[in-house]
Amino acid sequence: MNARPFAWLPTAFAASLAVVAVALSIHTLRVTPERIAQIERRKGDWRTLRTAAQRLATDRAALAEQTQNGPAANLADWMRSQRAAWTAEVQEKERERITENWSLQRMQVTIPNVNLVDLGTTLDALAVQTPPWRVAELSISAVESGAGRGRISLLLEGLVATKPSAP
Amino acid sequence: MGGAASVVRGVDLSGGRVVAVEGKRKRRAIEYRSAEANSAAPCAAALPIHLAFIRRLTAPLPSIEKARRVLPSLLDIELPFPLESCSHALLHVARTQQGDVEALATAARTDDIAAHLDRLQQAGINPLVLEHEAVALWRQSVEENPLSRQQRRLLICLGEDRTGLMVGSGHGLDTATGLRQSASEILQAQTGGAQRLALWWRTQRERAGAAAWHIAWCGPGADKPDLRQDFGALLLGESEYKSITHRDPATLLARGLANGLLSGDSLQGNLRQGALAHPAAEAQTRRAARSRLWTLAAAALLLIAVNLAWLHLLSRERNRWQQRLATEAETVAGTDRLPRGQEMLAAQRALESQAAGWTAFNRARNPGAEQLLAQILRVAKPYGLTFQNLVIRPSSFLLNGTAEDWNDGERLASAFTGDGWQTKLDRSDAGADERVHFSLKGEK
Predict the structure, then answer these.
(1) Confidence of residue A166 (pLDDT cuts 50, 70, 90)
(2) Which CATH superfamily is domain B369-443 in?
(3) Among the partner residues A21, A39, A138, nearest to B321 by beta-carbon distance
């Protein structure tokens, strides 16, 4: 009878460990390139998003700065109060959403006959407001009533609150 | 034991008398002194030359590992008895300059080994190692009187009850022969023994060619000048050779055995194998095997640990970048409810959906058309231009007007061309109002 019936156990244990080690090494060698590629992809994506996020943060900061005093003044009201003598027609043309809270409103303003000097001061007054009303397009046509006057068509842009979505 | 022990013994049975030497390592040197036969220190003994076989073998193979498998078969051919009935050992297995593998093979019949072990045990000696006598003698001879690589030596051992001859060079021991007779008995008998030794010596000289030989004497009989002279005359004839006698020649073998055991060299040449093995040597073999197993297991565990650590590192790094990506994507998308793995897609969609708004916002931050109007009026004023229609955007304009001079429209256009504008001027001849009508278009 064998005095050490389990003498083979250490050999089997060491051999098993060696097999596991070799198998695991092969597995590691196989998966390593793929995992490194995954990490590199994530790094690349992160850098892309980081750049976009920084640009977005800059834009948001600029938006916050421009809207620190609230939305641009109601253009129709402003015209009525500041340029009461004008027979200005003020219409909203479109509204482009920037964020959840802020949109860029485009207003079409038509003034049939106006002194161009008054127009200049008016546009300056609108431009210095916070946020400003900016002239996206300006069209002046001469009128018969005299030099220095004209028929004006303006497309003005200003930051306003986003209209709540319909429920 | 063996190479690991710091104090060992070399034991020789010489004419029924035990010659024991204790060897102790002191730094790089070994200190020898006489010892008791039954000391507790591990000991090595020798199998007399006449009971054993020794031969230098060459395997025409470049690989040492392959040669190790082939050499026993070559030894079997050389042996006068079957290899299965022997214990054998291969020593100094090394590649030669010719690209072959060479080894010194020793062998002895198991029955002879067992009988010699019985004799030793009757004298109270149970050696851990039993090696070929010639190997131990040659080891100590070249250790105490070194040889150059080309120099050849005939080592003559004059024992109490046996005589041995060994030849070799600085490369190592080549071969040996011996008789179960002392030198005195050989001289008295003047029989076949002396002729056999003389013939063997002549063969070795012829094989070595014109090499320079010298003689070294050892063994208890080497202390007797008359015996050395008579035996030398019998063996060597009238040829003159440079001759040395080892110091304390009677214990050279015991010193060589102790030296081999201390250095571990004799373990390779141990002929006490298998069922005849010393229990301690067997245990040592088992320990060595176990040690190899544990080394293998430890190496495997280390490899597993390194692999797992590397995989964990990769996984952690991937998760870290995934987390950073998710955080950035949440910032961009403005939500923390992005499906895992879809962060980049969701963030890109969010960016695309916001792109038009932000583009419009950034455009709206640039100067408006009112500044261009002011610039046009400022440039036009000195020339007395009048306008019928103006359509102005921040990056384009279209003007229709009249001028007093043909070149005034061109002057107006040139004021813009240096500022990054592309302009196109159309003019017509003066009409009834005597003014030049022009149209100026500009784009940035």
Answers:
(1) low
(2) Ribosomal protein S6/Translation elongation factor EF1B (3.30.70.60)
(3) A39
Three-state DSSP class for residue B253 = helix
Domain B2-277: which CATH class?
alpha beta
Portion 322-341 of B in contact with A at CB < 8 A: 322, 324-325, 328-329, 331-332
Shortest CA distance to B167 belongs to which of B181, B159, B156? B156
Chain B CB within 8 Å of residue A143 CB:
no
Alpha carbon distance B317, B323 (integer Å): 10
* Burial class of residue A7 in the structure, from the number of CB atoms within 10 Å of its CB (0-12 exposed, 13-18 middle, 19+ buried): exposed
Q: Is the pLDDT of residue A147 over 80?
A: no
Task: Give mean pLDDT, residues A72-101.
Answer: 90
pLDDT digits (tens, 9 = 90+) for B176-205: 999 999 998 988 876 688 889 999 999 999
Q: Which two tokens stand for residue B377?
A: 């009026």
The average pLDDT across A145-153 equals 84
Report how many domains make up chain A. Answer: 2
Neighbours of A24 (CB within 10 A): 19
Q: Which of B299, B311, B393 sits opposite A137 (nearest CB)?
A: B393
Give the A window 71-130 contacts with B, CB below 8 Å: 96-99, 103-104, 120, 123-124, 127
Q: What is the ipTM of this complex?
A: 0.77
Residue B1 has pLDDT above 50, yes or no: no
Domain ranges of chain B: 2-277, 295-364, 369-443
Within this chain, do residues A115 and A152 fall inside the same structural domain, yes or no? yes
Fill in the amino acid letter for A94: E
Q: How confident is the model at residue B54 (pLDDT cuts 50, 70, 90)?
A: very high
Whether A17 maps to a domain, the answer reads yes
> For B378-391, what is the mean pLDDT?
89
Domain end call among A33, A66, A99: A66
Please report, as a single letter, which amino acid is at residue A77.
Answer: D
CA quadruple A46, A48, A51, A57: dihedral positive or negative? negative
Largest CA distance in chain A: 131
| Phi, psi dihedral angles at B231 (to 5 degrees) | -70, -40
**In this complex, is the C-beta atom of A9 within 8 Å of any C-beta atom belonging to chain B?**
no
DSSP state of B434: S
